[in-house]
Amino acid sequence: MAQQKALFLESFGGEFAVRSTEIYKPGKGEILVKVLATALNPVDWKIQVFKMFVKEENYPAILGSDSAGIVEALGEGVASFSVGDRVVHEASFSSNKYAGFQQYVLVPAEIVAKIPDNITFEQASTIPVGLATAVEGLYGDANRGETGAKKLAPPPWEAGGEGAFKGKSIIVIGGSTSVGQYVLQLLKLSGFSTIITTTSLHNADLAKSMGATHVIDRNADLVSEARKILDDPIDIVYDTVSSKETQAQSLDLVAPGGQVISTLFLQVDKADYPDKSITEIYADLHLPNLRALGVSLYGKLTELLASGALKPNRVEVLPNGLAGIPAGLKRMERNEVSGMKLVVKPFETP
C-alpha cells in the first residue's frame, strides 16, 4: 500500500508526531490532492491544549483545515477538474482522510477551486478556513435559526450582493487576524460604508488595505472610541477574537435587537444581555448544513482571487514541513504571530 507522511496528534491532549500512513483513494465525487502548502490556525493548538472538537475515540488524529496543491487523482463522476490542476480547498479534521496536515488529502470536488496564476500555493493555503469562517459568520445560517438573528443576504459574489449594504456601519474586532482580514474584504464587497476595526497599530495599514475605514488601537477603550465615530447604534459586531473581554465589549456596543458574531463559544453570561443575539460559528464547509454555502462560494472563488477582489493573508513559511508545525503552534499559543499566516510545505518534511 502506498504511504505518505502525516502529522498525528497521538492522543487526547497528547503530543504531535510525524509518521507514515496510507494514501487514500478518492470516492465518488472526490478529489485526491497532493498538498504542497498547508496553513496553521489557532484551533489546531486549542484542540491539543483544551481537548476540544475532536472526540477521544477519534485519536490518533490528523488536524489542519487549509490545503493547497495539485490534483493527484479523480474520483468517479468528477469532470470539472483534471489531474495536475492547481487547487485550493478547506480541509476538515472531522476525519483523518480529509485533514490538512499530511501530504495527500481527499476533498469533495464541489468545494474545491482552481488557483489563479496570480496566487502561489503558499498564499492560497491561507484562504480556506479563514474565509469560510468570515463567510459563515456574515452570510450563513450558523445558529440563527435558534436566535432569530438575520444573516446578510445575498453574499457579494451572488447576484445583487455586491454593494448591497451601502450606507451601513459595522465593527470588526481583530481586523488583522486571518479571519478578520477576510471579514473586512467581504464587508467592503458588500458595500458597507463605515467599517471600524480594532488591531495593533502596527497593523493599521494592513487593516485599511483590506477595507477598514477606521482603525482603533486594540488596547484603547473600544466602546468610547467607537461611539465617537458612529452617529447611530450599531446592529452587528463581528468579534474574531472572542475572548470574554471582547465578547463583553461587543455586547455593550451592539444595539438592542442586534447581534454579535463570535468565532468561539460564549464566555459571558447571556442572561446579562437578554435583548441581544450571539451568532456562533463552526465553519466546516464539509458539513451538510454548510455545503450549499460552500458550493456557492467555491464556484466564484477563482474569479474573486484572480480579480484581486479577495486577497490572501501574508505568509511566513516554516522550515521542516509537517515537523515544523508543533513549534509554530506554540508561537501562536504564546500570541507571537501578528498579521501573518504560518504555512508549511508537507513535502519538505524530513
TrEMBL record:
Lineage top rank: taxon: Eukaryota
GO molecular function: oxidoreductase activity, acting on NAD(P)H
Positions of the Enoyl reductase (ER) domain: 13-344
Chain segments annotated as transmembrane: none
Classification via InterPro entries: ADH-like_C (IPR013149), ADH-like_N (IPR013154), ER (IPR020843), GroES-like_sf (IPR011032), NAD(P)-bd_dom_sf (IPR036291), Trans-enoyl_RdTase-like (IPR047122)
Protein name: GroES-like protein
Organism: Schizopora paradoxa
